[in-house]
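Researcher: Let's do a round of design. I'm pasting the structure tokens now; please hold your answer until I've finished.
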């Protein structure tokens, strides 16, 4: 499970502020004197799930530690148009320099949390849960996976060292040497002792071979619901029963149908790589 550590958040925020050249803001330097005080409110402009409030706060803390921040809604909370999310007070020039970076993080992460929540709610009553993937924005994976949790989703592996997942191209490389699924599982067990072994399968025959070889988890890639139900039945004959995850071609429109096959998880890259930003604004008032 992804946990946000402040040092990592600060590193990401500092990179974003450097990209924006926030300390070299020509417009603010010309128009807003350093001594002018002010107050600004973050306002929701759309319905959704909030995520990234501490990331937004950190943007202002890096710009100017003297700024005073007050959160009104916590991450994971539901927001509606007009809701006040947070306030920041102090040097108006500092607020303006950090405004865009803070809004970008808050809008982007809340968009991911909202997209996740929409899918999660569509799965209610099925017993199936939504997992994320590694299809994330480079440099922002920890934040985006955190946002998935805010929306009620489950984190899959954070990185390549966080678990074993034998994919189609791993199997292609093995087949070049005359090896197959059972060999892949055997080699993975030897190379990563103590780790759970998950393997991608695309057919009922491949699923059966993976089950016979003792895989801990099966990733059912682009399989039909009927085929998934057959794999669920096969897995149910095993003790312990392997975990089953469905992936590939899953959308909000068919997520529940897939979940009702009996799989434990569905995974969707779209909740991170294609989530629309949630509209928010920052409104400045006189100090």
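Researcher: That's everything. Go ahead.
Model: Designed sequence:
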């Amino acid at each position: 499970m992804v946990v946000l550590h402040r040092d990592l958040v600060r590193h990401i925020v500092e990179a974003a502020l450097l990209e924006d050249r926030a300390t070299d803001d020509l417009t603010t330097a010309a128009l807003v004197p350093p001594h002018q005080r002010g107050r600004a409110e973050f306002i929701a402009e759309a319905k959704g799930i909030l995520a990234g409030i501490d990331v937004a706060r950190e943007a202002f803390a890096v710009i100017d530690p003297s700024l005073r921040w007050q959160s009104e809604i916590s991450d994971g909370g539901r927001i509606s148009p007009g809701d006040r999310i947070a306030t920041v007070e102090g040097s108006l020039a500092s607020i303006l320099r950090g405004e865009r970076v803070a809004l970008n993080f808050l809008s982007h992460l809340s968009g991911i949390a909202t997209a996740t929540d929409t899918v999660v709610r569509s799965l209610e009553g099925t017993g199936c849960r939504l997992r994320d993937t590694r299809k994330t924005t480079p440099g922002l994976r920890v934040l985006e996976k955190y946002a998935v949790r805010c929306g009620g989703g489950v984190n899959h592996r954070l990185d390549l060292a966080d678990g074993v997942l034998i994919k189609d191209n791993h199997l292609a490389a093995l087949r070049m040497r005359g090896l197959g699924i059972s060999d892949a599982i055997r080699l993975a067990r030897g190379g990563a002792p103590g780790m759970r072994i998950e393997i991608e399968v695309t057919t009922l025959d491949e699923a059966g071979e993976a089950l016979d070889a003792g895989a801990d988890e099966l990733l059912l890639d682009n399989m039909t619901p009927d085929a998934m139900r057959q794999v669920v039945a096969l897995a149910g004959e095993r003790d312990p029963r392997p975990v089953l995850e469905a992936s590939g071609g899953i959308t909000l429109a068919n997520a529940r149908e897939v979940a009702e096959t009996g799989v434990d998880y569905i995974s969707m890259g779209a909740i991170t790589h294609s989530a629309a930003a949630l509209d928010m604004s920052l409104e400045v008032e006189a100090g």
